[in-house]
From TrEMBL:
This is BlaI/MecI/CopY family transcriptional regulator. Belongs to the BlaI transcriptional regulatory family. Keywords: DNA-binding, Transcription, Transcription regulation. One of its GO terms (biological process) is negative regulation of DNA-templated transcription. SUPFAM superfamilies: Winged helix' DNA-binding domain. It comes from Arcticibacter tournemirensis. The keyword Transcription applies. GO terms for molecular function: DNA binding. It holds the Pfam family Penicillinase_R. Signal peptide: none annotated. It comes from the Bacteria.
Length: 125
């Protein structure tokens, strides 16, 4: 079964679970910005994430401590591939050009990217 895309709310909860590594619903709520959502809202989103295969839980009586099954790195890879395929015709060049035009890349980052490219070129036989 392939990975599913997260909604904005699900992604916000996952970001917190990745940061906490494991936590109860209350722990997740504590990390959310004001105004805090209702306990039931967060609990429902976490159960949806569990259904989607992103999190699992350990039961402590009636309480559940949740933890990620999908790493942030795994989801980042999935989301980047989806972005690249759906919006940039699978072209890293087109994606890079888009970010440059939107002024999302500063000189320092451009320098770092050029270093990465140079290292890649040096590794090729």
């Amino acid at each position: 079964m392939g990975m599913k895309e997260l909604t904005k709310a699900e992604e916000q909860i996952m970001q917190i679970l990745w940061q906490l590594e494991k936590g109860f619903v209350k722990d997740v709520i504590d990390e959310l910005p004001e105004p805090k959502p209702a306990y039931n809202t967060v609990s429902t989103i976490i159960r949806i994430l569990e259904t989607k295969g992103f999190v699992d839980h350990e039961a402590f009586g009636k309480s559940h401590q949740y933890y990620p099954l999908v790493s942030k790195e795994q989801y980042k890879s999935f989301a980047t591939e989806k972005l690249l395929t759906n919006y940039f015709s699978n072209s890293v060049e087109k994606m890079f050009s888009f970010f440059v035009k939107k002024e999302k890349i500063d000189l320092h980052e451009a320098d770092e990217i050029l270093k990465l490219i140079k290292n890649l070129k040096n590794k090729k036989p």
